[in-house]
Write a structure and sequence with these properties.
574 residues; mainly alpha; 21 helices
């Protein structure tokens, strides 16, 4: 909690910032969300017919399937290597295309954009729509337009990634210092010149971090795009499951898990290497300014729009840092290597002009067939099924994740070795894509929302445990230590010293898990695990594009509504 002593109290003229509701109101909001979660969970159990007996029978069927899959049959090394390379190239190509499209889109969507105002609403609509519809849903559409292969997968990854990259980059653009941009406009620069010369250099570190994080996500998504024929290692997995070759399917799943885990470690290392210099340089600049007496001059130059002194340097650069030092050489070499890899990934998609021109009739047929959208009772029931399946699984997953988080966090675990074991287990569980769980449960239990609920339950539990453990470890330890020092028992110290601090984070992270589960429920339906995804795949296969359009609109509206609700709740609780 923030101290209110006279030494830290803000002056009366200071901006108090956004007002938070009193604790009693926040407690009522949290209690209301808890009651809603319990009600949705009960309704979900009733909808899919889940009971202790059916759950035990389902887990027994799944155990028999896993025994049939043992031992795993790994494909040949050459085949595995090519499937992995194709999966990585799809992710790189899609992420690169999304980054190129997101930069102008983010500048147009930002509130600080001084260009034509009428462009902002369409840009924001594109950001929302592309973020709401899952990658696999776009993959089904692009497979119908461009045919089977990695081209459809890369385009699906690109379109969906635009929503996230452009959204986060828009926030970064709006948070930049407006003084340099205003100075450039005062000198007669156009909006494009202002964006390229004053804003883009300042948000480039944020853009690099966003793209690297999105690449990590896209690699996971690309691993299962082959289920709908969009290339990558997922093609081999779908072939093995379709032919009931469970030993080979187990081997491919092992390859996917190892690939995702290794790439997650590599992604963390790359992000630290790329972003660490940008974090440390401001300290160096401040020390240099204080030693040479340039701090006031640099501030005056920035205020006046001076472009010849310290203000002309990129954020975090000092005058003595200019030159081709080792760090700059490595960064330039990394940028060149990234460009080469991106071009190679584009070439691997086989963008044959004849193939692209032949896709225009399919694209025209899809677009013209989408209007007017055909809403129906079956569509609304399928959307309701996806909603219940996702929210119910997220609620149960949050409860299970809380238990695992208490065993994992260093300030709540009863035994440190147990914490390490649980952490490793959660990393492995998170490394398996949700669609793989859905395919296994569909093979063991049959089609329907039961399989989808179990798949979302597992993934939501692992994700919630990760978020909750991180939040617990970031809490103020003083209340817990004070209670422990006066003889309070472990559960008493937790209830009075940790839980009151943790409630806002628990609620906010739980809502975020529900948001992700809702998006994934559409993907699982494509594999036959209930919900609206199966209806979408069927509408495209039967060329009923008006139904496809209605499904896309319904998905976007529901996802955006849940996202808005989660944002409002977090704003009032955190």
């Amino acid at each position: 909690m923030v101290s209110t002593t006279p030494a830290t109290r803000a002056p009366a003229t200071a901006d108090p910032g956004p007002l938070r509701p009193p604790w009693s109101a926040r407690a009522l909001i949290a209690a209301g969300l808890l009651v809603a979660a319990v009600a949705v969970t009960w309704l979900t159990f009733w909808w899919i017919g889940l009971s202790p007996a059916s759950l035990a029978a389902g887990l027994d069927d799944t155990a028999r399937l896993l025994r049939r899959m043992w031992p795993p049959d790994l494909p040949r090394a050459g085949d595995v290597a090519w499937m992995i390379v194709e999966t990585l190239l799809i992710a790189v190509a899609g992420t690169g295309l999304a980054a190129l499209a997101s930069v102008p889109l983010a500048f147009v969507a930002a509130r600080t954009h001084k260009g034509p105002r009428w462009l902002r609403p369409p840009a924001r609509a594109v950001v929302v729509l592309t973020r709401a519809v899952p990658t696999l849903a776009f993959a089904i559409l692009f497979v119908r337009i461009f045919g089977l292969g990695p081209l459809a997968g890369a385009l699906a990854v690109a379109v969906h990634s635009v929503g996230m990259i452009a959204k986060l980059l828009t926030d970064a653009v709006e948070e930049t210092d407006p003084v340099p941009a205003e100075a450039a406009r005062a000198c007669g620069a156009g909006e494009v010149q202002v964006a390229v010369s004053t804003v883009l250099p300042r948000v480039f570190p944020a853009l690099a971090g966003i793209v690297l994080y999105r690449l990590d996500i896209n690699i996971r998504a690309s691993a299962v795009l082959g289920v709908v024929g969009a290339g990558g290692i997922g093609v081999a997995l779908q072939t093995a499951l379709g032919s009931l070759n469970y030993h080979r399917a187990a081997g491919i799943i092992c390859v996917i898990v190892v690939l995702v885990l290794l790439l997650e470690l590599l992604s963390v290392a790359v992000r630290r290497t790329v972003l660490r210099p940008g974090v440390r340089r401001p300290t160096v600049r401040r020390r240099t300014a204080s030693r040479t007496g340039r701090r006031d001059a640099g501030a005056a130059g920035r205020t006046a729009g001076d472009t010849t002194g310290t203000a002309a340097l990129p954020a975090g650069r000092a005058p003595h840092d200019v030159g081709w030092d080792r760090g700059r050489v490595l960064r330039v070499a990394g940028a060149v290597a990234t460009g080469v890899v991106f071009l190679v990934s584009l070439w691997s998609l086989d963008p044959d002009p004849g193939r692209l021109s032949g896709a225009w009739p399919n694209l025209r047929a899809v677009l013209t067939g989408m209007w007017p959208p055909a809403f129906s009772g079956d569509l609304l029931m399928a959307v309701l099924e996806s909603l219940l399946m996702a929210l119910g699984a997220a609620a149960v997953g949050a409860a299970c994740g809380l238990v695992l988080a208490l065993l994992t966090a260093v300030n709540t675990t009863p035994w440190r070795p147990l914490s390490a074991v649980v952490r490793v287990l959660l990393v492995v569980v998170r490394g398996i894509p949700d669609l793989v769980y859905a395919l296994l449960f569909v093979a063991a239990l049959g089609l329907g929302p039961y399989a989808g609920f179990l798949a979302l339950w597992i993934s939501s539990t692992a994700l919630a445990a990760k978020f909750f453990a991180d939040s617990l470890e970031q809490l103020d330890p003083l209340p817990h230590e004070a209670l422990t020092s006066v003889g309070a028992r472990r559960w008493q110290a937790f209830a009075a010293g940790i839980w009151p601090q943790f409630v806002p984070s628990f609620t906010g992270n739980g809502l975020f898990v529900a948001d992700l589960a809702l998006r994934e429920s559409v993907v699982l339906g494509i594999a036959g695990a209930g919900g609206v995804g199966y209806l979408m795949q069927e509408s495209i296969a039967t060329l009923r594009y008006d139904t496809t359009a209605a499904i896309v609109i319904a998905i976007a509206v529901v996802v955006y509504a849940i996202e808005t609700l989660a944002r409002i709740a977090r704003r009032h609780l955190l």
